[in-house]
Design goal:
By secondary structure, the chain is mostly helical. 65% of the residues lie in helices and 0% in strands.
Length: 65
């Protein structure tokens, strides 16, 4: 990741914080825009697994109501 990309991500995260919107800012070492897109389609990638776990948590909350 470039310094500019990291700065942009941190600024976006700060804006979400000011609006009290839930989020998590992940640092994907060595990643760029293209590799992140590939990670989204790779079920073995750490990014895909993180997103899948968020969905699992959401499903658990929705099913417990």
């Amino acid at each position: 990741m470039t310094d500019k990309f990291i700065r942009q991500s941190r600024r976006f995260s700060e804006q979400l914080n000011t609006k009290q919107l839930p989020h998590e800012c992940l640092h994907l070492s060595g990643a760029n825009h293209y590799s992140v897109a590939r990670m989204l389609g790779n079920t073995a990638s750490s990014l895909f697994q993180k997103i899948a776990s968020l969905n699992d948590d959401s499903n658990l909350r929705n099913n417990s109501a």
